[in-house]
């Protein structure tokens, strides 16, 4: 039999999911992350899940991995020292940046301008110039290139980025500089803007290329290290890494283009949430992934996550296709604190992480965290991660009491309730960014909650958003790993055109899309897939002529290809107008303009059998484990503790209740109930809505 492994590394836990490709049977394991070397936790988790399943590691055929290596390098400022080569006269392209005024009144006064990832002293200019149409205006001076590269060698740069003006239209000069760099800077990895981001706008193209170079060494080293350790453990499997847009690429491709991995971890969660929602019969959803360090939220329409053209990590924004995920520093390990000046309770973004972790983990942590507050309120069982972590209730109480002592809150339970209320409001704010701020009413969506901490806060977030039902998928704590294991290989190719619609024809644009599809197909064919197994989708970035921003629009290629239906540009204009009016509530008379065309090629989605539960009727009593006192809105109430593994399809769990499982815990509040779906998800609704269903 063949097995595939989904691996997701978070700030606190590493999640492993083993899937039998023949039967669909899954085995899961959750272990503490090892920030000093993520591969240590990954290998330990793989060994344990194979041991538990009685499977030899040699039977694993694929390892599908969502990683935060690139993200952490950016956040922790631990990337390489990057040298930048640009066109003569444009040395300060990163310092000038893009005009941006943060915040509201006087926000710019206190805004710390981000430091460029390539210092000005490590930036050199070369003599050359290419026109926007690709014509060479000034030939490349190769002697000058060598002199400039020698300067960078003396500076001790560890990576090189090349971003010349208008290189998106002609990358010949960048290619030649890279060849010379191989001679002058042997062993130094090189990133070219014409490869990383062959698109309009010199600042965005440059910062994205520099970011790629900044993290390339760490990602390449991690991939090599993990592949070596997998081989040493007898796992001769193909390693694939999840991209920010939810697709997979081979480890080698990921190492060459790591800027596409900056949201690798969150993208896996969204992919897994879509799979779970589809099984439960819902196509429009908000996703809510709460881990130990942060919470990631996204919006999905018709089972398709909204895709953005920018990726933001910390204070860095690059042009890279990614699932439109918003992140807030609100996780189980988020630390509660009371600033002396305001005396107002705050939660996060600081986190206790995996080491030392929350006070209740008993690893030396003493700061009060969200997890500790949940322990004090009685929402968490005494053990987490299948028994790997035993919770210290007294330590949690001592930590949370420090908040009560620093405020006017009268008890430890009141302080814990305040911590939970604040972190829920923080998450609600993030959900509004992907819904109401984008013109969507959250009441039109289901809310899929997952991650180790998500199901504890899900019912409360359903009340705040009005999004029902709240869906708790099977194995919510390892759903990101499930997403990694159930997605497909993907690659894309793009070309900047900047053409008004009057300058284009359907036939001309169709030819461009076909060329892009052929280019994007090459890397997938190299993995052994056949053309018949590939699916191609198309999109374009459109704007009104004169606008300074674009809107990505999906394209039905048949409207360009089929003679009887050929009205591609007309339909494209109509779709653009509709989206522009939805986003901004107005239209312009200006001519429409196509800036960038894009083709995305995907491999087949793996077939994974879904969970199928036996019918058990509405009575969940056989799964009841004990009675327990929990605190709701400042008052103690008696709740029933249920074992989720014993629940059957059709069971209705009335709140207040706590539903425990190996990798997560679900809280059902009073006046709400959780119905068990036949495919394993819990569907939480207000009692009145459940009765109507």
TrEMBL record:
User: Can you give the residue ranges of the Hydantoinase/oxoprolinase N-terminal domain?
Assistant: 4-184
Which positions are tagged coiled coil? none
User: Which residues belong to any copy of the Acetophenone carboxylase-like C-terminal domain?
Assistant: 509-676
**What residues does the Hydantoinase A/oxoprolinase domain cover?**
205-491
Region annotation (Disordered) maps to: 606-625
Q: Which domain of life is it from?
A: Bacteria
What name has this protein been given in UniProt?
Hydantoinase/oxoprolinase family protein
Q: Give the species this sequence originates from.
A: Leifsonia kafniensis
């Amino acid at each position: 039999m063949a097995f595939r492994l989904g691996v997701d590394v978070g700030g606190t836990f590493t999640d492993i999911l083993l899937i039998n490709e023949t039967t669909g049977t899954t085995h899961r394991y959750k272990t503490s992350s090892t920030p000093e070397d993520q591969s240590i936790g990954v290998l330990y988790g793989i060994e344990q899940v194979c041991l538990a399943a009685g499977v030899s590691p040699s039977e694993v055929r694929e390892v599908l991995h969502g990683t935060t290596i690139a993200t952490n390098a950016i956040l922790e400022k631990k990337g390489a020292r990057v040298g930048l080569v640009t066109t003569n006269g444009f040395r300060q392209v990163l310092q000038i940046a893009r005009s941006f005024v943060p915040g509201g009144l006087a926000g710019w006064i206190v805004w710390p301008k981000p430091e460029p990832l390539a210092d000005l002293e490590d930036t050199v200019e070369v003599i050359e110039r290419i026109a926007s149409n690709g014509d060479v205006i000034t030939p490349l001076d190769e002697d000058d290139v060598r002199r400039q590269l020698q300067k960078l060698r003396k500076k001790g740069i560890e990576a090189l980025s090349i971003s010349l003006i208008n290189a998106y239209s002609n990358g010949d000069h960048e290619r030649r500089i890279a060849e010379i760099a191989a001679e002058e800077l042997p062993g130094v990895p090189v990133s070219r803007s014409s490869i990383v981001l062959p698109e309009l706008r010199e600042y965005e193209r440059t910062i994205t290329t520099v970011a790629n170079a900044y993290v390339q060494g760490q990602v390449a080293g991690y991939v090599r290290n993990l592949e070596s350790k997998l081989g040493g453990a007898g796992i001769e499997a193909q390693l694939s890494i999840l991209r920010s847009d939810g697709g997979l690429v081979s480890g080698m491709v990921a190492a060459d283009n790591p800027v596409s991995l900056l949201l690798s971890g969150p993208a896996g969660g969204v992919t897994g949430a879509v799979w779970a929602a589809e099984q439960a019969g819902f196509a429009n959803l908000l996703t809510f992934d709460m881990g130990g360090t942060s919470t990631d939220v996204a919006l999905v329409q018709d089972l398709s996550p909204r895709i953005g053209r920018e990726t933001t990590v910390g204070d860095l924004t690059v042009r890279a296709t990614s699932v439109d995920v918003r992140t807030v520093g609100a996780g189980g390990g988020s630390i509660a604190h009371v600033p002396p000046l305001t005396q107002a309770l705050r939660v996060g973004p600081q986190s206790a992480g995996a080491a030392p972790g929350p006070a209740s983990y008993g690893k030396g942590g003493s700061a009060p965290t969200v997890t500790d507050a949940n322990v004090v309120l009685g929402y968490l069982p005494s053990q987490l991660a299948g028994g790997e972590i035993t919770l210290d209730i007294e330590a949690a109480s001592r930590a949370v009491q420090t908040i009560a002592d620093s405020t006017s809150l009268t008890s430890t339970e009141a302080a814990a309730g305040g911590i939970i209320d604040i972190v829920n409001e923080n998450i609600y704010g993030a959900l509004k960014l992907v819904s109401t701020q984008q013109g969507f009413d959250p009441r039109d969506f289901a809310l899929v909650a997952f991650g180790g901490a998500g199901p504890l806060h899900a019912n409360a977030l359903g009340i705040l958003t009005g999004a029902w039902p709240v869906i708790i998928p099977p194995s919510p704590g390892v759903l990101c790993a499930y997403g990694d294991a159930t997605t497909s290989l993907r690659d894309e190719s793009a070309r900047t055109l900047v053409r008004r619609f009057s300058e284009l024809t359907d036939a001309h644009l169709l030819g461009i899309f076909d060329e892009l599809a052929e280019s994007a197909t090459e890397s997938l064919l190299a993995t052994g897939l056949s053309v018949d197994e590939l699916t191609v989708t198309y999109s374009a970035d459109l704007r009104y002529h004169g606008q300074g921003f674009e809107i990505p629009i999906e394209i039905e290629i048949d409207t360009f290809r089929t003679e009887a239906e050929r009205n591609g540009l007309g339909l494209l204009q109509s779709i653009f107008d509709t989206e522009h009016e939805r986003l901004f509530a107005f239209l312009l008379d200006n001519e429409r303009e196509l800036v960038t065309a894009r083709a995305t090629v995907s491999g087949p989605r793996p077939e994974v059998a879904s969970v199928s539960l036996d019918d058990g009727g509405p009575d969940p009593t056989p799964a009841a484990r004990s009675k327990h006192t929990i605190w709701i809105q400042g008052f103690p109430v008696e709740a029933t503790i249920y074992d989720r593994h014993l629940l059957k399809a059709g069971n209705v769990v009335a709140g207040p209740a706590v539903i425990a499982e190996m990798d997560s815990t679900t809280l059902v509040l009073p006046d709400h109930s959780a119905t068990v779906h036949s495919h394993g998800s819990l569907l939480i609704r207000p009692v009145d809505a459940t009765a109507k269903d």
